[in-house]
Amino acid sequence: MATAYQNLSACDNSTVPHCPSLRIAIVCAEWNHDITGNLLDGACQTLKKHGVKEENIFVEQVPGTFELTFGAQRMAAHYRPDAVIVLGCVIRGETPHFDYICQGVTEGTTRLNTMLDIPVVFGVLTTNSKQQAIDRSGGKYGNKGDEAAVTAIKMAAFAARMK
Ligand code: DLZ
After folding, report:
1. Cα separation of 6 and 96, whole Å?
2. Rounded to the nearest whole angstrom, what is the distance from the C-alpha of residue 110 to the centroid of ligand 1?
3. pLDDT per residue over 1-38, tens digit each?
4. How far is the CA of 113 from the centre of ligand 1 (A)?
5. Per-residue b/e over 136-155, b at no fewer than 16 CB within 10 Å?
6. Threshold 0.90, pTM exceeds
């Protein structure tokens, strides 16, 4: 994840395979849509940069980050992709909601990775402030969507090698 110390969006592109036949599903939360829209744009651009065809990128929206687990499971069944990316943004508020949503999506994504035979990539920003989210969705610490796309390509290639 992009932090003040490490910006993975600036990763070495030569280590990312060129994958013209990959199918990638992206499920994106509508909450904080100004942020998640930038994550989605970054993910799609990065996938295309590494050879994924536009018609093989499947995008669906769900209301919030909590719904990403269900969305990912259904998209995996429906589109039969090589990897799924979940994109969301949870910003800490004044109630414990933040912790419940973060825990729910983290555990849900982890469970899907053990249930499905394709990787599910975690592209969820969990920040203390809106500014931290802006900084990580195309701002000074890169774009978590780009990083999720690179991870999806690498993990799909890994899964193919481990068949
Ligand atoms: C309810 C809620 C709150 C308070 N905050 C966020 C948030 O920061 N980011 C996000 O993606 N979703 C939030 N939600 C909505 C929940 O994810 C979920 O959509 C609802 O609890 C309905 O299940």
Report:
1. 28
2. 19
3. 445 555 555 567 778 988 889 999 999 999 999 999 99
4. 22
5. bbbeebbbbbbbbbbbbbbb
6. yes
